[in-house]
Amino acid sequence: MKTLDDLRKMRDQVRKDLDMRSGAKRARVTVCMGTCGIAAGARETMQAFLRDLESAGLGDVAVTAAGCAGFCEKEPMVEVEIKDEKPVRYCHVDAAAVARIVQEHLVNGKVVEDLVFA
Fold first, then answer.
1. Burial class (CB in 10 A: 0-12, 13-18, 19+), 64
2. pLDDT in tens, 34-92
3. Taking a C-beta distance cutoff of 8 angstroms, is the pair 105, 112 a contact?
4. Which domains does the chain have, with CATH numbers?
5. What phi and psi, each to the nearest 5 degrees, are found at residue 29?
6. pLDDT confidence of residue 19
7. Residue 28 is inside which H or E element, if any?
8. Angle between helices 4-21 and 42-55 (to 10 degrees)
């Protein structure tokens, strides 16, 4: 960071990121970020959600983190909660799965059945 403008850009990005993680939203995506999840790629999964939701213009979806879900072999795991609907837990969520979940579930309202935790 070298200029006041750089600091302002950083501030704006942090505000945007914080807004995406909180507030009253239509839906919430929770990424399990226990050590097993992180080792399986949960950080990359979280970043993919933030990127893909922004690209899709979905500012009404909060993205949060949780601890270990207790199913280490299924990590990275993600839970999608849409207002007035039953939560859906997905497993083995990589960047390709994130793209499908965003488009199919969060945009079109259809659960991605082959990724659902069973």
1. middle
2. 999 999 999 999 999 999 999 999 989 999 999 999 999 999 999 999 999 999 999 99
3. yes
4. 4-115 (3.40.30.10)
5. -110, 125
6. 60
7. strand 27-32
8. 100
